[in-house]
Amino acid sequence: MMGNFEKTFDNSAADYDKSRPMYVKEIYEEIFNYKQINQDSHVLEIGTGTGKAAQPFLDAHCRFVGIEPGENLAALAKEKFRKYTNFSLYNQILQDYICADNSFDLIYAATAFHWIPEEYGYGRVYNLLKSGGVFARFAYHAGSDKGRRALTDEIQELYRKYMHQESNPVEFGETDAKRLADKALAYGFTDVKYMLYHTTKDFTADEYISLLRTYPDHMRLESVPREKLFEGIFRAIVNSGGIMTVYYTMDLELARK
């Protein structure tokens, strides 16, 4: 059964696919340098969503299995990759996925592993991996528009008013990535490493509101303050020239069984 967080993504599947950023190519290059993937490799993605991180692995011709609990998200992914004979997708959570241990050469999760209880998640991944197999955990973290300080300040004031955020968001950094990488050591993994990457994505006012509708914490707000927050942000972007740039930090953690 899906929790409220997963339902939020699933209900906004089209917005999620359109609005969320693509991962930088350097993430995949680093993964493939760390673990060679070919047509004989068995790869599992935890939390496939609409398949935003699946293409490079499918193009490596591996035997790809995805797990996605959201019915609408899974349907989009299945449609997107319908021509790939090496693509399989299970519409369920990891806890319900039945598979023999020591089955996969690579398991990865893209902005999804934080939904899984840590002890269960790392333990299950370790068991599912073959000896020498690799776990890749990567994610993106949205940062404010560094080129439009007045817009950033106005939006932060709206968050203080409607979401009671008294302090400005702290940018994800190297200390955070190292902490995530080191977690794997407690579950038997070795050879851990981490990397950080940076990219940007421009949004119109409409596009940015579509993005916000995929954020669980925003959609948990009562309808009146949520719509006031969204209306305020929309007007702020329009009045600032019609474009807002999100500065994304992306992190990758790698570990070997």
What's the SSE blueprint?
Blueprint: H1 4-11, H2 13-19, H3 25-34, E1 42-46, H4 55-59, E2 63-67, H5 71-80, E3 87-90, E4 104-110, H6 118-128, E5 129-143, H7 149-162, H8 174-183, E6 190-204, H9 205-212, H10 216-219, H11 223-239, E7 243-256
Parallel strand pairs: 1-2, 1-4, 2-3, 4-5
Antiparallel strand pairs: 5-7, 6-7
Helix pairs in contact: 2-9, 7-11, 9-11
Can you walk me through this structure?
The chain is an alpha/beta fold. Helix content is 40%, strand content 25%. It is built from eleven helices and seven strands. The chain has helices at residues 4-11, 13-19, 25-34, 55-59, 71-80, 118-128, 149-162, 174-183, 205-212, 216-219, 223-239; strands at 42-46, 63-67, 87-90, 104-110, 129-143, 190-204, 243-256. The chain has a seven-stranded mixed β-sheet.
Briefly say what this structure is.
This protein has 257 residues and is of the alpha/beta class. It has eleven helices and seven strands.
Order of neighbouring strands in the sheet with most strands: 3-2-1-4-5-7-6
Question: What's the pLDDT, averaged over the residues?
Answer: 93
Q: What is the CA–CA distance across the termini? A: 30 Å
Q: How many DSSP E strands?
A: 7
Poorly predicted regions are 1-9
- Summarize the main sheet: 7 strands, mixed
Summed up, the helix count is 11
- SSE order, as H and E? HHHEHEHEEHEHHEHHHE
> Which bin fits the share of residues in helices?
40-55%
Class by SSE composition: alpha/beta
Beta-strand content: 25-35%
Gross morphology: globular
